[in-house]
Automatic annotation (TrEMBL):
Gene3D superfamilies: HAD superfamily/HAD-like
InterPro entries, sorted: HAD-like_sf, HAD-SF_hydro_IIA, HAD_sf, PGP_euk
UniProt keyword annotation of Transmembrane present: no
Cofactor note: Divalent metal ions. Mg(2+) is the most effective.
Cofactor(s) for this UniProt protein: Mg(2+)
Signal sequence annotation: none
EC number, as in UniProt: 3.1.3.41
Keywords: Hydrolase, Magnesium, Metal-binding
Superkingdom of this protein's organism: Eukaryota
Plastid keyword on record: no
Binding site for Mg(2+): D29, D31, D254
Name by which UniProt lists this protein: 4-nitrophenylphosphatase
Length: 305
């Protein structure tokens, strides 16, 4: 069921004040909300500062899986946004939290086979999770006759693998897919950092993390549990870390199908859409709109009046 049309807050200080008062924690999508590409929107820093000065907790939520929280914080700093690593929740970290605090697979069958880059490895380490694959050069090569043999008889496989985690991997190849498939066929759980089909960059698109999972979905007929927006596994992971009251939380984003859906399905107290990114007012005003935010502003800095 779709809710009523959102309340428009721009230029209404009393409504903005009341809106901010309702919440203890704001979850922020980043690109299209705080910045676009490398361009920081004017007033972003002051708006975040205003929320902090009113005692609000801020969490930056991103589906980017190639970066660890520390990497992502560097990006925030380079754009001039003050932040701490603890305020950042990226899908690589979300995956690590989900594995360690929610899946809680019994040792020793709790090791992870990784398709992905360094950001994923850093976050798995931060949660004390053992893994193989990832950036290991041993997997960055062509498959050989010995590989086919050892994969078929299992002698090349690690019997403690309980999870295959697929994220954006710039060195994906046939050998890695062959290993991942064998683990899944032997019962490993299938996780994906996120299922974004594309990665916007340089004014065009490149294959996204979700595109890495597709051959495995095709082979196994299984869907992965996704740890990025709008998957509720990510919301569970965020809650697993911050322990907040969902009724006192608000999701802020520019995309209806990921950010706003994420907040609504997570039963947060509120959702705020901004018009500086992907979605347009017409998208939720349309007769058949399947997702509607509770509030919207033209741009984030409208909240500072
Ligand atoms: Mg966005």
């Amino acid at each position: 069921m779709v809710g009523q049309l959102p309340k428009y807050l721009t230029g209404d200080p009393a409504a903005i004040n009341e809106f901010i008062d309702q919440f203890d924690i704001f979850l922020f999508d980043c690109d299209g909300v705080l910045w676009s590409g490398d361009h920081l929107f004017p007033g972003t820093v002051e708006t975040l500062e205003l929320l902090r000065s009113r005692g609000k907790k801020i969490v930056f939520v991103t589906n980017n899986s190639t970066k660890s929280r520390a990497d992502y914080q560097k990006k925030l700093t380079s754009l001039g946004i003050p932040s701490t690593v603890d305020e950042i929740f990226a899908s690589a970290y979300s995956s690590a939290i989900y594995i360690s605090r929610i899946l809680r697979l019994p040792a020793p069958k709790n090791k992870v086979f990784v398709l992905g880059e360094n950001g994923i490895e850093t976050e798995l380490k931060s949660e004390g999770i053992e893994f193989i694959g990832g950036t290991d050069p041993a997997y960055r090569r062509d498959i050989t006759p010995e590989d086919y043999k050892g994969l078929a008889d299992g002698s090349l496989l690690d019997e403690n693998i309980g999870v295959v985690l697929a994220g954006l991997d710039f060195h994906i190849n046939y050998l890695k897919y062959s290993h991942a498939y064998q683990y899944l066929a032997r019962g490993a759980k299938f996780l994906a950092t996120n299922i974004d089909s594309t990665l916007p960059s340089n004014h065009t698109f490149f294959p996204g993390a979700g595109s890495i999972s597709i051959p495995l979905i095709h082979m196994t007929k299984q869907q992965p549990i996704a740890l990025g927006k709008p998957s509720q596994a990510m919301m569970d992971a965020i809650e697993g870390k911050f322990q907040f009251d969902r009724k006192k939380a608000c999701m802020v984003g520019d995309r209806l199908d990921t950010d706003i859906r994420f907040g609504i399905e997570g039963k947060l107290g509120g959702t705020l859409a901004v018009l500086t990114g992907v979605s347009r007012k017409e998208d939720w005003e349309a007769e058949g709109a399947s997702v509607r935010p509770a509030y919207y502003v033209e741009k984030l800095s409208d909240l500072k009046g």
